[in-house]
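Pilot study result, target chain (79 residues):
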Amino acid sequence: MIKKSFTKISLVGLGNVLGSAFNLIFLTMVARQLSVIDFGRYALLTSVLLAVSKLTDFGVNSVYVAKSISEDNKNLSSQ
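Predicted structure:
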């Protein structure tokens, strides 16, 4: 069970690192193509959309993950 958990955590971590690397490359390409004013507008829009998505989430994702983990533990203990 610990090995399975470690594997899942490692995959999530790797996905986060790769996602961050792609975001950095994308942001660099956008910054080179846009003027300073347009890049500022892009950054503002991105920030507002991210804030709205975090506010509308209400922690549902965390609750789902915790519930799925507890259900997996119940299934493992009943076997």
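One observation from the pilot: The mean pLDDT is 86. A full batch analysis is planned for the follow-on phase.
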